[in-house]
Amino acid sequence: MRKSMFVAALVAAALPFAVRAQDAHPSVSASSPDGSIVLTVSTDSSDRPTYEISRKGKLLIAPSKLGFLLTDAIAMERGFSITGSEKASADSTWEQPWGESRFVRDHHNEILVHFRQSADWGGHLVDVRFRLFDDGVGFRYEIPRQPAMDTMNIADEITEFDLVPKGTAWWIPGGEWNRYEQVYQKTPIDCVSTAHTPVTMKTDDGTYLAFHEAALVDYSGYWLKHVDGGLFRTTLAPAAEGPRVTRKLPFDTPWRTIRIDDSAAGLVANNLELNLNEPNKLGDVSWVRPMKYIGIWWGMITGKWTWAEGPNHGATTARAKEYIDFAARHHIGGLLIEGWNKGWNGNWFGHGDFSFTKPAADFDLKAVAAYARKKGVALIGHHETGGNIANYESQMDAAFALDESLGIHSVKTGYVADAGGIIAPGDKPGEVRMEWHDGQRNVEHHLKVIEEAAKYHIAIDAHEPVKDTGLRRTYPNWIDREGARGMEYNAWGQFANGPSHEPTLVYTRMLSGPMDYTPGVFSLEGANGVALASTVGKQMGLYLAIYSPIQMVADFASKLEQFPAEVDFVSKIPTNWAESHLIAGEVGEYAIFARKDRDSEDWYVGGINDATARTLTLHFDFLKPGETYKTTIFKDGEGATYLTDARHRVATETRTFRKGDTYTLWLAPGGGAAMRLHPGK
């Protein structure tokens, strides 16, 4: 549903310059709806397009250059003048089919600025569209048809962000071998090198910022490259050869986005990237089914079972039926079986040769699917490519057709390979080339998967993906992504992630969209007896802190049987919300959310902590006036800590709350909590 509240007509202006006509470098300006953010667009002394952003009367982004380097022509950088601009405003509300909240408001002012390059510099035309919200700015290049160019071959994009205030940044390196699966660094802003986005910053005056992009389609993802001081520049993920991006004209680039707020909570609540994506293109998507699921995955991660066929093969028919029975008993909606198909034997990392229709010898796919349907459990398919998208694209149609015929409506895809190790089809039959995970070719591939899957009413949970840029609005079957350092690293070493990792994800990776983090390891046991840097309370709190419309209960079924109260509670936590609010938190330290179920009047409150024990006062101002809520609370027990066997200590409590009440919550080092508030005494 899209409820339009107000859309202003375009206000055209041939040359709405903000300075004298004889000035050699006229400018245009626009502001956010509340006037707090002011944009000025101009050209500098070298006739390079620039923009600057002020907030609340203070310069935030100093004049920063716009433009492109080309492989076959003079750079689209100098010799530009503004030839005109057009303004517009919009205020509308749209509905998400699933998500952290049901309704999203899109309230912005817009200015489209037209630039023309002089003939001796190439004579190119470039339009830049800016949208200003009260809590951020997005802008993109729009390259129109023009006599001087038919195809644009981009060597690099040179968009700048010259940040004025100093402060702190949370970031991961861009272009590293294991993609986005890095531990976040906390450094001064001027110590960032080259980073994947989102990059989160807090300036010394208390302003929170996050740099990212929206609507990444048929283009390379960008890395934020530090130049000097507060100056940063985009650099596009490379291609196997030649231009980093090749596009026929006309085309639009992805949006470059800056979230801006006075609080960490405001940064998290921001819908900038979603609002900059196009509305749902798929129509009725009622077949997309948010749910909890279990899997045999933890058995392979810890080394007890194998993906490959053999005596310890995890994906057997017998084990699948055992896990289906567990899911049915505990009201868990789905089951993911990895290693079910041919292709896992040998070294498949980075050069997978999988079949997506042929099961392993000890796995009867049709029998397992029939058994799952009988028990009311949804099977989740698994398509690991080993980074070989050429092999996957040749089988995709047959694979999705098979899944649909078996009643499989969600598929987890995987692209395990080095950052520059995607095997893509070449220009000639049988030819392949190596591409980057976030280069243009793989960006095209992921969208091709989504569009093909939609034909068969299949939702996609992509692992080792291209970063999320809000495309779930346009393609709601893109239900989830990994795209960060996940739970499996905890299995391989107690401090491989560390207790501050998840409270950092909330304010960094999670700004881009849902993540399949795979919580629910209540045994807190990893490979070879490794203890997780967590408490049982934190494992429960993760279901509220790390949002995903499909969430795994990741531990062994045999271990989960030892935690009946926790499993029962988690099975009831929704994965689709009417409202979500961060009610307490700070970047990298802790995060407590209040979320309202979309299908009932229940509220759920909970979240996660870093290594520092802390006591919080939670305010229940979000509750319905006059209503009493019976509340079940799971929290860290006295003396709990991730450092010792006390990590297993859990305390439970039953309370009643009304609007305006407060609650004192103690969080253990590496701990967390979860509570359900149900109307009625």
Annotation keywords:
alpha+beta, Beta-galactosidase, Chain A, domain 5, TIM Barrel, 12-stranded antiparallel beta sheet, 8-stranded antiparallel beta sheet, globular, disordered N terminus
Task: Choose one word for the global shape.
Answer: globular
| Count of discrete alpha- or pi-helical segments spanning 4 or more residues | 12
Uncertain segments are 1-22
Q: Termini distance?
A: 35 Å
Query: What share of residues is helical?
Result: 10-25%
Rounded radius of gyration (Å): 25 Å
CATH topology of the largest domain: Beta-galactosidase, Chain A, domain 5
* Count of discrete structural domains: 3
Q: In CATH terms, what is the architecture of the largest domain?
A: Distorted Sandwich
CATH first level of the largest domain: Mainly Beta
Structural class: alpha+beta
Q: Report strand %.
A: 35-45%
Walkthrough of the structure:
It contains 12 helices and 40 strands. The chain is α+β, with helices and mostly antiparallel strands and 681 residues long. The chain has 3 domains: 274 residues, Beta-galactosidase, Chain A, domain 5, CATH 2.70.98.10; 200 residues, TIM Barrel (Alpha-Beta Barrel); 185 residues, Aldolase class I (TIM Barrel), CATH 3.20.20. A hairpin with a 6-residue loop joins strand 28 and strand 29. Helix 4 runs parallel beside helix 5.
Layout of secondary structure:
Elements: E1 2-7, E2 11-13, E3 28-31, E4 37-43, E5 49-55, E6 58-65, E7 68-70, E8 80-95, E9 103-117, E10 125-133, E11 136-143, E12 151-157, E13 160-163, E14 167-171, E15 185-188, E16 194-195, E17 199-203, E18 208-214, E19 222-228, E20 231-236, E21 245-248, E22 251-252, E23 255-261, H1 264-269, H2 272-275, E24 291-295, H3 297-301, H4 317-329, E25 334-336, H5 365-375, E26 378-384, H6 389-405, E27 410-414, E28 422-425, E29 432-435, H7 440-455, E30 459-462, E31 478-481, H8 488-492, H9 501-505, H10 536-545, E32 550-553, H11 557-560, H12 564-572, E33 577-586, E34 590-597, E35 603-609, E36 614-619, E37 629-636, E38 650-657, E39 662-667, E40 672-679
Parallel strand pairs: 24-25, 24-32, 25-26, 26-27, 27-30, 30-31
Antiparallel strand pairs: 1-8, 2-8, 3-4, 4-5, 5-6, 6-13, 7-12, 8-9, 9-10, 10-11, 11-22, 11-23, 12-21, 13-20, 14-15, 14-17, 16-19, 17-18, 18-23, 19-20, 28-29, 33-34, 34-35, 35-40, 36-39, 37-38, 37-40
Helix pairs in contact: 4-5, 6-7
